Structures are given as structure tokens and as C-alpha cells.
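Researcher: I'd like a structural prediction for the single chain below. Treat it as a standalone chain; there are no partners to consider.
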Amino acid sequence: MSLADAVTHFPVVIHHNPDCGTSRNVLAIITAAGYTPVVIDYLREGWTRPQLLALFAAAGLTAREALRETKSPAAELGLLDPTVSDNALIAAMIAHPILVNRPFVATPKGVKLCRPDSATVLDLLDRLPPGPFHKEDGSLLIDADGKRVWSHTPLATRRLRAPHRVMLTIRPARAADLAEITAIYSHAVVNGTASYEYDAPGLAEMTSRFEAIVGARFPYIVAQDEGRVLGYAYASHFRTRPAYRFMVEDSIYISAEAQGQGIGTLLLGELLARSEALGFRQMIAVIGDAAVNLASARLHAAMGFVECGRIKGSGFKFGRWCDTLMMQRALNGGAETLPEA
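Model: Treating it as a single chain, here is the predicted structure.
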């Protein structure tokens, strides 16, 4: 299956515990359905507070609802006491990543904790695995006719969540999208501090930048709903000197009316998948005016980025100094192995 078939139209992100049978089942379902998910091994990579806050909020869960109570140190740490605050639970989860229940999955249909029934992930996918498909324990999930075999869990015990408000197509950007892309970026420049530009570039300049990025074979993608571009993202050089060639910087902008709907998560998920497929080893986010642009920091933290630096007073816009936050995520094992070339 080509990269375009696997991730372009429906990106999938899974926070995975390879030691957990339910998590393995969910990952197997996703891959059997033809997706190439972004897999975040949270036991190895750990958690941060912004990451957990963003993940729980997107799934509609409290920290207590997301707590793994069995086969974890929850009892010995006294976390089963209902008077323990969510802040204390999150602090414990950061210290002991295994305390977070598993697996969390994010797709254009929303974010869910896919347990106790791994079949929950099917609600987040836009197609089923070919049948017959069995879980690790041999139970049938998809029959020979390709139909879902529903569990017998009583409806009253299932956690019901409202569907995600927007169904999107995530696809490569085209020249025809540039007018909408220019409008989205112009609004960000004129009204915010995520970009340190003062004057919004016009269509000709944005076209030139687009051509340079695409011409260098970096991924440049858009989120589209009903023919409208609601956001865009791309990866590009962090620095142009050759020793930096395995590192990319990401940029993500969402239209003002579409913010807060999870579109940034989906764009970043696909951007990570595409960048890994191209062989890059590190992605860095350069977040302008870190004290204000908390949503961007939380988005990146939820996708496995960690803070790697902060440059104080690095920007001056709207009559005040702005700090710049640097966040980093390893791709393809990062620096654990040498590159092939």
C-alpha cells in the first residue's frame, strides 16, 4: 500500500503499550484495516503534563477515568483513594507512565480510550479490516462477509461520546489551495504572535514559499471539509547546512473558525507519518510567544514532543517581548542508530 493510500485521507495516531494485549489488538485492527498509524510507545517516551491534559480533554475523560488501576503501582501509591486530586494523579502518571490506561487512539472521528473492548477502535475508523478477522484470544471481530461482530457488552456499561464535529480530508496541498492558505496565514500574522512576521505576505510570496518547500520534496498538506481548507501544515528545513539534513521543522496553521476541533492533531499526525516515511530522524517545533500560544505547546506535547529549549526575549511584536519555545520529537528511532546515507 502506498503512503498516500495509508495516511493521506485518514491519519491515525495510537498511544501504544506493546506489553498489553488490548493495545496489541487495537494496533492489529488498525493495520489490518490498511492504515499506517503513528505509534507512540508511551512507556518508552514517557508523558508530560500538557500532553496528558490535551489527551484526556480530547477523549472527554478525567485523569481518574484514565487511570490504570490494575497491573500498575496505583494501589501501592495510594491513588485508588477517590480523594486524590487529578493534579496528583497526573503527577504520578508522569513519574510512572504505566499508570495511564491504554491505548488511546486519535483519528478524524475523534479520540477514545479503546478499552476494555478493543473493538471500540472500529468506531474511529472509516473502514473495517477484511474478514474474517480474529483478535489475539481467537474471538471473531469481523466475520467472513466483512461485517462487524458486535460484543454483548450491555449498552448501559458503554461510555458514549458525542461524534467529532468535523469530518475531514487530509491531503497534499495544491496550488489551487494557496489563496485559502494565504488567508489563514495572513490572519495569524496580523492578529497573533505564533508568527514573528509583521506584514502578511501576499499570494505571490506564499506561492513562492510553497513551490520551494514542495520542490525540495518536503510534505505540505491541508485539512479540507466540504471543499474548504480549514488548516494546513508542512515540514521544511530546520537549517540548510548539510549536517542538519535529517531534521525538519514543522509549521501548522488553522483557520480562526476551525480552531479547537482537533484539526491540528490530525494534521500533525499525518505530518509525522509522512516525515518518518521520508527518513527524517527529528522534528522540531519552534513555537512563538510561548506564554500565549499554549494550544500549540499542548498539541505538540500530546503528540510526543518534549521541550528542548526556550529562548527568552527572542521576538518583539505588538509592543512586547516574546519567548520562543522549542519542542522536539524523534522519528525513526532518532539518534539510536546511524543513518544509511
